[in-house]
Design brief:
This protein has about 475 residues and is an alpha+beta fold. It has one domain (about 5-30, about 40-445): Transferase(Phosphotransferase), domain 1 (Orthogonal Bundle), CATH 1.10.510. The strands form 4 sheets. Strands 1-2-3-4-6-5 form a 6-stranded antiparallel sheet, with helices on one face. A two-stranded antiparallel ribbon has the order 7-10. The chain has helices spanning about 5-15, 15-25, 85-105, 160-165, 170-175, 215-225, 230-250, 305-315, 330, 340-355, 360-370, 375-385, 395-400, 405-415, 425-430, 435-460, and strands spanning about 45, 50-60, 65-70, 75-80, 185, 205-210, 255, 265, 275, 285, 290, 335. The longest helix is centred in the C-terminal third of the chain and has 26 residues, at about 435-460.
Length: about 475
């Protein structure tokens, strides 16, 4: 397998997805299996949320997510209950609340870039602010490596007939990104009503809206059924994934651990399905350095440049939840460079998984782990910008058979060298999404026009 490279190996998936996925796929960890925690605090939280002890939805390093019932709202919810009340768990809880509420209210992260000793930022793809502050430019950086990889939502391509109806700035400012992320219903608070330890239950918890099927589970189901997505289904899914990252980056965060298990479908009021990102524990402010111990990643979705960082710091191993295994304190607290392009790579991996119905790097990771007993060989291959590209040869031809624009889009996202990789703005503007992008912007322009007309009518003398 490892001698043939990714491109040759994956072509078998397109002709017989069911047998291919069955032969190489590890069954996902079905956390919904019965799981009892005898140390769990009282079943009723805030005299409102009842926890189903025997229905576990997921588990991470710090917390277990249970299905629950909102007795006030008369609806099912997801309750994230923290396992321990130590310093690390409390810090993770408070960071999660800060990110979730910031996203839910549409408030952009306001963290200032913390310079390193040589005066350089530890966020590598920011650009100097323009003379006129657009509200989107990041703080100044000396790093030229990503100087051209700017993140400026005002660069989103808007068709001329839509621009005639609403200005670019109005459209961008009115985009509601909150629908791309799971909503918070409640959370534990201390005696001062701040996020913290709930005095009554002596626990830390967050209550979320409850979603449906995860993208991971859907792809497993499709593989079992021998089903493949159509080109239009791929386009819709990939647009949803790109929109999630665009919203996250616009609000000032990077994620690093976007994967199908963290993407869940929700039924919206208009009966349409909405894919949302549900796990924001690992989201980090894009305007300040990140510590190694705060980075949550899954190696099969890990970007090449972050793989290189792990190798250089000699901290290859991750625990089963994606956090770096604890090493020396000086390593855990060492700042690392982040780039929004890391999330672009992860989304590209998710998109490829939807095509082949398995994580496309899993066979190499598993084989080399069995062969060597460590993750180092996999990380060395991934971090080598000059090794075999992800998309080449027969694999490229197979993707072109689905759609040439899609193939070009995925090639741009999965460039190992980040200086050649598409930015999220280039993804949004790609020809592959032209039809769906224009449709969304036209709908938004229409909403703005109707809102302005209603405001004008309400303020007219006749109305008063």
């Amino acid at each position: 397998m490892s001698q043939r490279g990714p491109a040759a190996w994956h072509c078998a998936a397109l002709s017989d997805p069911k047998s291919f996925a069955t032969s190489c796929r590890r069954k996902p960890n079905k956390c919904a299996a019965r799981h009892k925690d005898q140390s769990m605090p009282q079943e009723l939280l805030q005299d409102r949320f009842k926890i189903s002890r025997d229905h576990v939805l997921g588990e991470g390093s710090y917390a277990v997510v249970y299905k629950g019932l909102d007795r006030k709202g008369l609806k099912n919810v997801a309750v994230k209950l923290y396992k321990e009340i130590d310093e690390d768990a409390t810090r993770s809880f408070k960071k999660s609340i800060d990110v979730l509420l910031g996203i839910q209210t549409g408030m952009r992260s306001s963290s200032k870039t913390a310079p390193s000793e040589d005066g350089r930022s530890d966020v590598s793809d920011t650009e100097p602010p323009d003379e006129i502050d657009t509200g989107w430019a990041e703080n100044s950086t000396d790093w030229a490596e990503f100087a051209t990889r700017s993140f400026d939502p005002s660069m989103v391509e808007i068709p001329s007939h839509v621009r005639r109806r609403s200005s670019r700035g109005e459209l961008i400012r009115k985009i509601d990104f909150s629908s791309c992320f799971v909503s918070v219903v409640s959370y534990s608070k201390d005696e001062d009503d701040n996020p913290g330890l709930d005095a009554e239950s002596e626990s830390l918890f967050i209550v979320f809206e409850l979603g449906g099927e995860s993208l991971e589970d859907r792809l497993v189901r499709y593989a079992d059924e021998g089903r493949k997505l159509s080109a239009d289904e791929h386009r819709s899914l990939q647009w949803a994934l790109v929109s999630i990252v665009f919203g996250l980056h616009t609000l000032g965060y990077v994620h690093l651990d976007i994967k199908p298990a963290n993407i869940v479908s929700f039924d919206m009021p208009d009966k349409k399905e909405q894919w949302k990102l549900i796990d924001l524990d690992g989201a980090l402010n894009s305007g300040k350095p990140a510590l190694l111990k705060d980075c949550v990643t899954t190696l099969q979705y890990l970007s090449p440049e972050l793989a290189g960082t792990f190798l250089s710091m000699k901290v290859c191993a991750r625990d089963k939840f994606g956090r770096a295994r604890r090493g020396r304190e000086e390593t855990d607290n060492q700042p690392i460079k982040l780039s929004r392009l890391m999330d672009v790579w992860s989304v590209g991996m998710c998109a490829m998984e939807a095509i082949f119905l398995v994580p496309i790097l899993m066979p190499w990771y598993d084989e080399w782990l069995r062969e060597t007993g460590t993750e180092e060989k996999f990380l060395n291959w991934l971090a080598d910008y000059h090794s075999d590209p992800i998309i080449t040869g027969d694999l490229r031809d197979a993707l072109r058979e689905i759609d040439e624009d899609m193939c070009n889009f995925l090639e741009g996202m999965l460039q190992k060298d980040p200086s050649k990789r598409f930015s999220i703005i280039e993804c949004i503007n790609h020809t592959w999404f032209e039809k769906i992008r224009h449709s969304h912007l036209e709908d938004l322009a229409g909403i703005l026009e109707r809102s302005e007309a209603a405001d004008s009518e309400a303020q007219s003398p006749a109305a008063s």
